[in-house]
Amino acid sequence: MHAGKPTSEDQDIQSWEATVSAWMDGEDEIRPEDLDSPYGRQLWDTYHLVGDVLRSDDLAIKPSDLFYARLSKAIDEEPPLVASRALKRYVNWRMGLSGLAVAAAVSSIVWVSLPYLTGPESIPTVAPQVVVAVADDAGVWDYLEAHSQIAGSGALPVTRPVSFETGGGR
Amino acid sequence: MTGLLHGVMRSFRARRQGMGSLLMSSALAVGLAGPVFGQQQEDYQDSGMALLRSMRDAARNLDYVGVYTYQQGAVMQSSRIVHIIDGTGERERIESLDGLAREFIRHNETTHRLIPEKKTIIVEQRRGDRFPAFLLGEADQIPQHYAIRIGKYPDRVAGRPCTVLELVPKDVYRYGYRICVDLEHAVLLKAQTLNRRQVINQIAFAMLDVGAKVAPEQLNSNWNTSGWKKQDALLSEVDLASEGWRISFPPGFHPLTQVTRSMSAGKEVDQLVLSDGLAAISIFIESFDPNRDNPFSKEVMHKGAMSIVRKRIGDHWFTALGEVPADTLREIAERTQYVPSSVN
What we know:
The complex is a heterodimer of chains A (170) and B (344).
Chain A: H1 8-24, H2 38-55, H3 65-77, H4 85-90, H5 99-113, H6 138-150, E1 165-166
Helix pairs in contact in A: 3-5
Chain B: H1 2-18, H2 20-61, E1 64-72, E2 75-86, E3 89-96, E4 103-107, E5 110-115, E6 120-125, H3 142-145, E7 146-150, E8 155-157, E9 160-169, E10 176-182, E11 188-195, E12 198-210, E13 229-232, E14 235-237, E15 245-246, E16 254-262, E17 268-275, E18 280-287, E19 300-303, E20 306-313, E21 316-322, H4 326-335, E22 337-338
Parallel strand pairs in B: 6-13
Antiparallel strand pairs in B: 1-2, 1-12, 2-3, 3-4, 4-5, 5-6, 7-9, 8-9, 9-10, 10-11, 11-12, 14-16, 15-22, 16-17, 17-18, 18-21, 19-20, 20-21
């Protein structure tokens, strides 16, 4: 979250956390009473939660599809801070990276993010998911209908034109 | 927060190193269990295929009435289906309950497609299997391209206990499926299309009655169609290969049919349908007219399981679409060549 060089305070915290982690792995020494602070207890709990989840999937929270959608939307919205609002409106379809690809990438890091989403104050407030509609094109629908007339056993809706998102991947 | 993340990651790495020996031993265990597991896989393929076939027979031979819902992303659509076997054969009516009103009334191989807003009936000589049919064409090759797993515990859909079956693709050319098949009658109750472990669309009965409760009156259309235009769907057989099209099929996909059809815009299009027994791909070829054709802005589109790839090949528009990954279609498009014979 810090774009510039880490401050010395950051480095201190980081090295202290590294030490705690190493201590839990039996590789280093700390004074355990140093952990007796709100931050220390949170750190302790987080490490154990991560460990428990790694050992047993049953302990992991299964995020809903909506969660993935919100998270991928949030990630989409985060980085291009350089882009102005006005510009962003014209780039409202995802270039190159499809929603599913984003969700797939997200699922691999989601265990890291989970501990921070437990408190109500930390739930990101994200606008409802916007379906990226590029073409409600009658032309597309013609082909879909022709396809489903012959290969209709697939789970294709019988009447409703679907809108498509463009992109390079699956 | 960055600092904490770093700490967690470091801890994760340390643990992973520690887990090395654990991984070794589990790899050994898998190695030992290999032959037994392989045998079980074989058994599942046989019983899985048997179940898929009885599912196909159930969809064709039973009397049933039900309401099913298709869901993909934010789109949801329900339909009512009535299917009855009488002295003349198979009769079926499918009616859409959301959005545009549509009805499909089928008697054996003849399907009447009702388009109420145009007071038109389109007549097709084709059975056009839809849900709860699941297999396409000869499905014998499914085990070559999908691993079949059968769930140990029954699930429940539309108030009915059902057997869970997973069809896991063996390569990247197709999606996976998780389906649930009625324990009592082998009717397909629910089908999910999976991209890796993620559901990308699904269709399931919300209610289903099988057998005596199905009244033949339910086959009657909601619409009084007297005075409606009746129009034959103009489909004629075509042979794209003899016309010079060299189309490379993805592994396991075989042609189901190839026809010439007229689209609503009045243009003639050749359509080739491929299937691996579960997934279907349509390839459309038409002449390219820069004045008329202002098709989609992008070459690749996808929505849920459905992908579309377009490409201009010479003076033709090549469109491939189907419930497969976009890369599968892109590969077909890239490998297709048009080599018209010089004699004609």
